[in-house]
Design goal:
globular, 63 residues, four-stranded mixed sheet, 30% helix, 4 strands, alpha+beta
């Protein structure tokens, strides 16, 4: 597990509210997760945003 992956896991655990979504850019596209739910892959950021439309806050990480 890389340093970035460890930091993302800590971030997910620090924000347990399901109304917070996290979108992460990956080499293969985008991953989106509502806190406490599984992570799902998407081809575009827009698809990931649509999946998280019920979330009050969305954090986007595009490293």
């Amino acid at each position: 597990m890389t340093d970035i992956q460890r930091r993302l896991e800590r971030l997910r655990k620090a924000i347990p509210d399901p109304k917070v979504g996290i979108i992460i850019q990956t080499p293969n596209g985008w991953e989106a997760s509502r806190t406490g739910h599984e992570t799902r892959p998407f081809e575009t950021e827009q698809e990931a945003r649509q999946y998280l439309s019920r979330c009050k806050t969305i954090i986007i990480i595009d490293v």
